[in-house]
Amino acid sequence: MASLNFEKEKDSFRKFYDSNSKHFEKAKKAYIRIISSLLKGADIGEVTKIEGRVKDKEECIKKFNRKYQSKLEADDQPYEIKDYLSDLIGIRIICLYEDQIEVVAEVLKQHFKIIDVTDKISAVESTEDSFGYKGLHMDLALNDQMISLPKYQQYADYPFEVQIRSLIQDAWSVLDHKIKYKKSIPTDLKRRINALSALFELADREFKEIRNATTELIHQATVAPISDAFDDSRETADQPSTVTSEKTVNAFNFLRVAGHFFRDFEFEDYKVDDFVQDILKLDGGFKKSELHKSLNTNLKTVREYSDYFMAKNPGNTFSPYTAIRHCLYLYDQETFSRILSKGPKDRFEGWLREFRGDYT
């Protein structure tokens, strides 16, 4: 029964919390599963973390006391503490980039009942002299369709808060919470903190711009007609640097060349980076046209060897990277003598002598 007796309501809330704590944990895990599934099925890019927590019961009481108690009692309005805690269960979603936040929020709006939305990003950016962490906070509840499902009916009375942040916003929030006495901090320290906050904001923006620029480079490298991609003679000094730099093999034009020959294979970015560096360590001026030529000339032979090798060694693999290494070795055995380690090189040379009869 609601009342205006704070001590009584504190005791009542503690009993409610203790008797339902296991249920809160189950609800938290259920919400994480639902949100993870929704975001996995949406085209939003990489989400680095989805985690949850159940708010400590004494922290719940402190928050109620800080935000609601005085007004409720001034209005002579009886209360139960549990009715004012939309964040008793909290979910945090960490995106790589700031522009993913709104996309994630739209997905959640489509699938949950919206209680409240607090945009801390706009709140901070609309002032010139404040500092603090950014993020989007949403108070949500299961919608009627979810509640109608037996497996979710038990969570019908449990709203929850979702915090959505970029990776850099999350890092700043950790530091922001460590800054003590922010309302009383001296002006010179406040200016330094504001400068630091601005650096984090700049990092978030630059991180996004680097992603966009990298995506554009990959797009340029992968949509050009195949006949254009390897014609170095068309590259002149007055072309943009992003084009002329493609003369030497790099991760972007490597993807273009390798993707042409291995259409069904997904080249992972970090492996491509490492592989290209392996090539450039052996020949710092190796051209994309030479890469294309090495594959165009030698891949048929290497695939014959791959079939032979896999028949003899069914438990092993022969990846596109391995095939490219063999092609480069055939293309220039002196320059790429170390592109294959001793064992694979000896086996390959032996096969060439025995089965091809054309290795000298």
UniProtKB/TrEMBL annotation:
The record's InterPro entries line, in alphabetical order, gives: NT_sf, RelA_SpoT
Organism of provenance: Syntrophotalea acetylenivorans
Task: Give the matching CDD domains.
Answer: NT_Rel-Spo_like (cd05399)
What is this protein identified as? (P)ppGpp synthetase
Q: Which domain of life is it from?
A: Bacteria
**Every RelA/SpoT domain range:** 52-187
Instruction: Name any Gene Ontology BP term.
Output: guanosine tetraphosphate metabolic process
Please list every transmembrane segment annotated in the UniProt record, as residue ranges. Answer: none
